[in-house]
Each structure stands twice: as structure tokens, then as C-alpha cells.
Amino acid sequence: MTSAIAGPWLAAIAPAQGVEDPAEAPSAGLNLPTDVTIFGKSDPNVRKATAIVNGTIITDTDVDQRLALVLAANGGKVEGEERDRLKLQVLRNLIDETLQIQEAAANKIEISKAEIDQTYNRVAGNFKRTPPAFAQYLAQQGSSERSIKRQIEGELSWRRLLGRKVEPFVNVGEDEVNAVMARLNASKGQQEYRIGEIFLSTTPETSNDTRANAERIVTQVRQGASFVAYARQFSEASTAAVGGDLGWVRAEQLPDPIAAAAAALQNGQVSDPVAVPGGFSIVALIDKRQVLTADPRDAVLALKQISVSFPKDMTQAQAAPKVEAFAAALKANAGCGRADAVARAVGGEVVDNDQVKIRDLPPQLQDVMANLQIGQSTPPFGSLADGVRALVLCGRDDPKNAGAPSYDAIYSQMEEERVNRRARRYLRDLRRDAVVEYR
């Protein structure tokens, strides 16, 4: 989801975990603290128990290695007090994950090593690495293969448990689905938004502290941290499990303050904290479109990319003549048939791609590509470090008029929303019954 809204592996494999709601705190009897404070610094080579959950030990090493995954998703840009706060949240999430695995085992649900390895290998493939190379990469980030496989086990266990204990008891009526389809057709042409949200609950007594915490999160995300990672760790909405993604919604489906915030954002931007009933929301605009209307950004392009690289020690002044020659060659270019000759003239390379949607390009290039004619090219773009490149438009398949989602798609979405609500209540009950010792 731009503006670092997508976390590299968290979006693919992180388990469905939320944030402990003060209103859902354990009842008397367990004597569980509402917050956890880690005192002092520890030797990372010492496996000290941080918490014991129904007899299962969570060590400092477990916390640190899982924290390393979140920090890597944020580009390692989280420091100081923010890092400490994130570490506390990681511990809470590990406790939830442990409860989920334990509850699955209590219901005789076992996740085989082969299933875990299969998911792990797929994640490694997403990073274009072999499993051994991915394990080495994780170690370089301060994490481990063991940590990410435990995360995978937690997600698979919870999903299978919900499939047995929750999903069979969730019903969506045919009339409900038909009503949604009718509203969609009646709204054709209206603006709709794909929204990410981080919701932080508050009380009148804690309002100032909650707003300050929300402002810190906004600052971190605007500086390049992952919105998805923060949503998973901090959001108290049911959408925390999917990185805060609300999906496609129209303004009238949103609370007025959130609708107003979304309307004021450009794609990839994040709002200031928005006061809503019960707390504050941070809104990220992932994308926007018109309901059931063909979007020019869904056009599929055939492109040739011409790229020019520079030695690491070359200065901006030294590179300027080569960039100017590249720009001049592009202006004189006569279509895709001459792209290879242009690349040779400037010492560049050509890469072909025939299946690129305009909406998948960086926001700065989307408007440029939408207005190009066949055979024309973009101006040069890039940097000395990453190289300078240009895109030549070889063909375009414009989108057809968009149709309404199918009955099955709407049914599945409504069912998933209801399962998520029940899943949150299920996890709340597990927390209430748990015996957790903090060390």
C-alpha cells in the first residue's frame, strides 16, 4: 500500500494479532498487568525468560528476533523510546501467538513441519532467495529461521482453528448480498477509496497520551516506517490482522471524520490523527477510483525500459553530460524499434515487460504514462546510486468498463468480516483465561 505502507514479509505471513483493548482486560483472578515494562538491557546471547504463558516460555531472544522482523520492515529506522514501545507490543503479540498455538493444540490441530516449510519456502521465493539464502538474510537482520517459522505456525494454527470453531457458525443471507450489489450498482461513478487505518482506543483521562502516541506513529510512517507493520502491532481494530486494510469503501460507508480525512489525501499519504468516537484513527490512502467505472490506470502497457548505470565514485557533475546525452537520445527516439539503438549509443541496457498496469507504477509516473502515445518515452528519472532510466511505450490495452463484484466475491467479503469479529472475541476470551507470568 506507497509511502512505505507495505511491509515486506509481515503482509504475507504475520498472524492475526491485535492490541489488548483496555476494555477487554482480564477480569479479577488472574491478576494480569495491563502493561508490561522491560527493565534494563540484556545480553542478547542469554535466553532469559520474559514471560511464561500457560507454561510456555517466551524469552528475550524470541522478542528480539521478532522485533528484528518488524524493524527490517521499517528499514531499521525505529530508535529510542519508539523502539522500546514497539518491543513491548511485540511481546504482547508473541503472547497472543502462543495462546493461539496452544488453543489449536488443545483442539487436536497439528501443523506439520512440511506445511511450515512449504510456507517458509514460498516466502523465501517472494524475496527471490533460496531457503538457505533467506535464512542467512534473516540472520543478518538479527532474526532467525526459527522465529519466522514460529510465526508461520501461529498463523496456520489460528486459521485452521477458526475454520473449525468459528467459520461453520457464521451465516450471510442471500438478501444481504443482493442488497450490497444493489447499492453498488446505484453508486456507479461515485468516488471510492482503498483505506488503511490504525485505530487507537482512549478514554477521556488518557486522550492526550493516546493522541501523542498516534502522532508519534504518524511521524514514523511519514519518515519511511511501514504502515502495515504499525497497524499489525498497534491498531485495535479487527483489520489489524491485514495491516489495517479496510478494502474499497465509499465515503458514506465511513465515519464523517475519516471520510473527510481520506478526501483530503493523495495516494500514499497518511493523515494526522483523526478524533473518532472512542479514540483516534490514522488514515492512509492506498488508492482511489470510481465505483463500477473503468479506470485508465488499469490499462496494461507493453514497455521497454532503457537504463543507464554509473560507477560508485562518479559525481553528479561527472554524470551530467551522460544524462543530458541520454535525454537528447530519447527525444530523437522513433519508437520501440529504436530503443536498442538508443541504449547502445548511451551505454545502457534494455528490459522488456508486456504486462505492466499503470496503477502498479510509482505515483510520479502514472500520470506521465497515461498521457503518452505509442512510441513516446518518459523523461529520464532515477539517481546516481540506482541508475537513470526511461520507459518507452510500445503498446496499451485499455480497460473495459468495470462490472460489479460477483455474488460470491461479496458473500466471501461479508463472511470474512464476521469471522474476523468473532475471532477477536475468541482471542479476548483466551487472554482472560490465560495464566501469564512476567519475568
Automatic annotation (TrEMBL):
InterPro entries: OMP_Chaperone_SurA, PPIase_dom_sf, PPIase_PpiC, SurA_N, Trigger_fact/SurA_dom_sf. PANTHER family: CHAPERONE SURA (PTHR47637:SF1). Keywords: Chaperone, Isomerase, Periplasm, Rotamase, Signal. Residues 190-287 form the PpiC domain. This is Parvulin-like PPIase. One of its GO terms (molecular function) is peptidyl-prolyl cis-trans isomerase activity. It comes from Alterirhizorhabdus solaris.
